[in-house]
Amino acid sequence: MADTFFEEQTEQSLVKAEIISKYFWAWAKVIIGTQKRYPDRSDGRVAYIDLFAGLGRYRSGAKTTPVMVVEQAIQEPDLCERLVCVFNDKDGDNTSSLQTALAELPGIEKMKFRPHVETGEVGEQVVRRFEAMSLVPTFFFVDPFGYKGLSLRLVNSVLKDWGCDCVFFFNYNRINMGLGNAAVEEHMDALFGKDRADSLRAKFKLQVKPAEREAFILEELTKAMKEMGGQFVLPFRFRNDELSRTTHHLIFVTKHFRGYDIMKGIMAGYGSISDQGVTRLEYNPADARTPLLFNFYRPLDDLADMLLSDYQGRTVGINELYEAHSVGKSYIAKNYREVLCHMEAAGKIRMEPPCPPRRKGTVAEHVRITFPRKESG
C-alpha cells in the first residue's frame, strides 16, 4: 500500500488538501491583520509547519498540500514577506521530490523566507525542540501515515503559543487496532494519555459494537485535546468508497472561537447534508454516552428546543448566542438565523426590532432576542 500511496490523488486526499489550504489562507489573513494592528505582539512572521510532508507531487502530477500552500502564498504579497514554511519527512526521496516541486513553482523567488525542507523521524527530540521555543503564529499540520510520532505533547508543543492552530490526520483504522496491540501501547499512550488509553482498553474488553468503538475513541481524544488547552475541537470524518466504514478523520484544534467558526464553515462546505439542511462534518452514530459527539448529530428541530431551554428568561444578541451555543455542535450561523426567524414567526421568542420592519429572514448584529421564562407547574 505504501508503494502506491502517492500514485494518484484520491478524492478524499483532494478534499483534505483543499480544507487545509482554505483554512490556512483564512487563518493567515486574520493573523496578519492582527499583527498589523498590534505590531508589538510579534515580529510579523507567520509559519506553516508540516512534519509529515510527503512528496511534492503525486506521480499523476497533482500537487500535494505543501505545494498548494506555498503556491497560494506566492500570490499574496503579505504572505511573501511573512511566511516561514518548515517541511519534514523521514523519507529522503520524498523530501527531494518536495524540494524540486517547490523550486519549480513560478514566483518562488518572491518569498522572503524560502521554504525549509528537512529529513528525519518525528519523535521526542522534535517535541522538546518545539516545547522550548516561543513560536511565531503557526498553522501546524500533522499527517502521519499511521500514528507513529503523533502525540498530545507534539500538538501542545505548538498550540501553546499565541495564534497557533493545529490540524492532524487521525488514522482511525490503525489506531483502533493499535488500542488492542500491546506492541504499540507506548504510541497509544502518547496519543490519548495513559489513563484515557487504559480506559478505552478496558471498555473494549467488553462487547462493544464497531460504531460505539469509534464514538468512544473520538470522545476520549476530544476530551484529551480540551484538557490540554485546545478549547475548540472539530472532527471531520472520511469513509471508504462503499461508505461502509470509517477510514480516518481530520481533527482541528484551536484556542479561539473565530478559528473554530471559520474551520466549521470550511468543513461544512465538504460535508454531507443530513436532516433539515444541517451539514454533518462527519458521520458517526454517537449517542448520549458520548456527549461531546452526540451534539454534532442533532437535527435542526432540536436546535429550537435547545435554545428555549438553554436561554429561558434571557435576552441576548445573535453574536453572543452563536459564539456560546454553537461550540460542540455542527450547526453553523445560517442554521441559527433560520431557526430564530421561524421561532419568531411562531411566537416562541421576541426579537427587537421585530420582523417587519426588519427584513424577513434576517437577524442583524444589533437585534436583541428575548426567550420566554419556563412556565412553572
Give the helices and strands, then pairings:
Blueprint: H1 11-37, E1 46-50, H2 65-74, H3 77-82, E2 83-89, H4 92-103, E3 116-119, H5 124-132, E4 138-142, H6 152-159, E5 165-170, H7 172-178, H8 185-192, H9 194-204, H10 210-228, E6 232-239, E7 246-254, H11 257-268, E8 272-273, E9 279-280, H12 291-294, H13 300-310, E10 315-317, H14 318-325, H15 333-345, E11 350-352, E12 368-370
Parallel strand pairs: 1-2, 1-4, 2-3, 4-5
Antiparallel strand pairs: 5-7, 6-7, 8-9, 10-12, 11-12
Helix pairs in contact: 1-2, 1-11, 5-6, 8-9, 9-10, 13-15
Q: Can you put this structure into words, describing what you see?
A:
By secondary structure, the chain is of the alpha/beta class. It has 2 domains: 2-295, Rossmann fold, CATH 3.40.50.150; 299-370. The chain has 15 helices and 12 strands. The strands form 3 sheets. The chain has a 7-stranded mixed β-sheet, sandwiched between helices. Helix 1 runs antiparallel to helix 11 and helix 8 crosses helix 9 (194-204). The longest helix is centred in the N-terminal third of the chain and has 27 residues, at 11-37. The termini are far apart. The relative contact order is 0.08.
Identify the notable features of this structure and list them briefly.
Rossmann fold; alpha/beta; seven-stranded mixed β-sheet; disordered N terminus; single chain; 377 residues; 44% helix; 15 helices; globular; three-stranded antiparallel β-sheet; 2 domains
CATH homology group of the largest domain? Vaccinia Virus protein VP39
Uncertain segments are 1-8, 282-286
Instruction: Give the C-level CATH assignment of the largest domain.
Output: Alpha Beta
How many distinct helices?
15
Order of helices and strands: HEHHEHEHEHEHHHHEEHEEHHEHHEE
Helix content: 40-55%
By CATH, the topology of the largest domain is: Rossmann fold
